[in-house]
Automatic annotation (TrEMBL):
<feature type="domain" description="Putative restriction endonuclease">
    <location>
        <begin position="12"/>
        <end position="169"/>
    </location>
</feature>
<dbReference type="InterPro" id="IPR012296">
    <property type="entry name" value="Nuclease_put_TT1808"/>
</dbReference>
<dbReference type="Pfam" id="PF05685">
    <property type="entry name" value="Uma2"/>
</dbReference>
<protein>
    <submittedName>
        <fullName>Uncharacterized protein conserved in cyanobacteria</fullName>
    </submittedName>
</protein>
<dbReference type="InterPro" id="IPR011335">
    <property type="entry name" value="Restrct_endonuc-II-like"/>
</dbReference>
<dbReference type="InterPro" id="IPR008538">
    <property type="entry name" value="Uma2"/>
</dbReference>
Length: 193
């Protein structure tokens, strides 16, 4: 993600302007950020999980969206495009402009966005009353971090560090081996020292 504007822009002006753009832009507290392109592993991971979730949720009240659907925090001054979002809200299923009540949000990390996804995005996402899980998937190596919203209001981290693990998405009653998420993903080997 790269910053595109250094001057404050209102949320209304952002929405009008972004609707006319060919690429996606996220918005946070008056600043607009252009979305950078992802790598092949990033795309493969997103497609693998979105496909598995769509199959699993077929026939339910939940809907899976990926990449080009924004999550709207109008009252909080933020609009984000997560890699995958699941909503089970009736109004969201018929929405045209974005999702307001996500149950599950997944971000596939890249080196340039990992800090933002763990930091500022998660701080905003946690404010959504509907959100039950926030999942961050590494695209450079195998690893998944899942934050679950507990009944006491705290967020609990569960890490899935290797292929032998099954990822549990409690918010929608889904689990799968990490191998499903990383199917046919080829990582670039680290350079030799």
């Amino acid at each position: 993600m790269i910053a595109n504007f250094h001057e404050f822009i209102s949320a209304n002006d952002y929405l009008k302007w972004e609707a006319q753009q060919e690429i996606r832009y996220e918005y946070l507290d008056g600043q607009v950020y252009g979305m950078t392109g992802g790598t092949v592993p990033h795309n493969d991971i997103t497609l693998n999980l979105a496909t598995a979730l769509k199959t699993f949720l077929r026939g339910t009240d939940c809907k899976v969206q990926m990449a080009d659907v924004k999550v709207i925090f109008a009252e909080q001054g933020a609009y984000f495009y997560p890699d995958i979002v699941v909503t089970c809200d009736a109004q969201d299923r018929q929405a045209r402009d974005g999702i307001r009540s996500p149950r599950l949000i997944v971000e596939v990390l890249s080196p340039g966005t990992a800090g933002f996804d763990y930091g500022q995005k998660f701080r905003r996402y946690r404010r959504l009353l509907s959100l039950q899980e926030y999942v961050l998937i590494d695209s450079e190596t195998i690893g998944v971090d899942c934050y679950r919203h507990r009944e006491d209001g705290q967020w609990q981290l569960t890490s899935y560090p290797d292929h032998g693990n099954r990822v549990e998405l409690v918010s929608i009653g889904y689990s799968c081996p990490l191998a499903v998420i990383y199917e046919n993903v080829d990582f670039i080997p680290p350079p030799n020292p």
